[in-house]
Write a structure and sequence with these properties.
The protein starts with a strand and ends in a 12-residue tail after the last helix. By secondary structure, it is an alpha/beta fold. Strands 1-2-4-3-5-6-7-8 form an eight-stranded mixed β-sheet, sandwiched between helices. Helix 1 crosses helix 8 and helix 2 crosses helix 3. The protein is built from nine helices and eight strands. The chain has a single domain, classed as Alpha/Beta hydrolase fold, catalytic domain (Rossmann fold).
């Protein structure tokens, strides 16, 4: 387990691979752990990092840490402590909102941003019930998700409901791409309605993300699509 200490608080993270840095930000349910297969897929090209946001996994848990700006400041502390001047961000649901909040304050530190759009609103804040959406999770991911402070989940969902419709991608100056429900022209439909597309549609998700991260910054926002041959089973 890797961690950095900020005051009396702990930020837990894990990393794998070599190359330019990429940081993964989890949703309001889960932890760093569900990103592992994607991190391993990219590890031959990038140094991948995934953090537990405040209140989740093995990071510190205190109600004063759970507002959006404090969660975004976690990224600032993380980059400063590891000496990373600029990074690509991959956010999922609430993690995307945290990434957007950080990017709004520090646009010069964001290389590019890949977000997993989620518009389905949760009907519960019970972690056990929310994990039903992650039926394809393995047991390690499920156990790690259960470490979350219920207050962090509740607060994250409140922020998600308040902020999710307010993200204005037109203001983003760095390369940016969303996948999910096709909300706007920059959103690529993939596994619409799936809570964890990086698990349920790993092949398409990982290959699209790799193309985005390695592509020409002048064309990646308009030239990417989920290719049919990605979906064929290789025997």
């Amino acid at each position: 387990m890797s961690a950095i200490i900020i005051g009396d608080s702990v930020i837990h993270y894990e990393s794998v691979g070599r190359g330019k840095p990429v940081l993964f930000l989890h949703n309001y349910i889960g932890s760093w752990r569900y990103w592992v297969p994607t991190m391993e897929y990219l590890s031959g090209h990038f140094r991948t990092y995934a953090v537990d946001l405040w209140g989740f996994g093995d990071s510190s848990k205190h109600e004063s840490l759970y507002d959006l700006i404090t969660q975004a400041n976690l990224i600032s502390h993380f980059l400063k402590e590891l000496g990373i001047p600029k990074i690509a961000l991959v956010g999922h649901g609430f993690g995307s909102l945290v990434g957007y909040a950080f990017a709004d304050q520090h646009p010069d530190q964001v290389d590019r941003f890949f977000s997993v759009v989620e518009k389905e609103m949760p009907k519960t804040t019970c972690v056990g019930d929310l994990l039903i959406a992650g039926k394809n999770m393995d047991e390690d991911i499920r156990k790690d998700s259960l470490k979350a402070d219920p207050r962090a989940i509740t607060r994250s969902i409140e922020i998600f409901l308040d902020q999710n419709d307010e993200t204005e991608s037109s203001k983003i100056q760095f390369p940016h791409l969303s996948i999910g429900s096709g909300i706007d022209k920059k959103t690529i439909p993939l596994a619409t309605g799936e809570f964890f597309p990086m698990i349920t549609h790993a092949e398409e998700f990982n290959r699209l993300l790799l193309e985005f991260l390695t592509g020409d910054s002048t064309t990646i926002e308009t030239g990417l699509a989920v290719k049919e041959f990605w979906k064929r089973r290789v025997r």
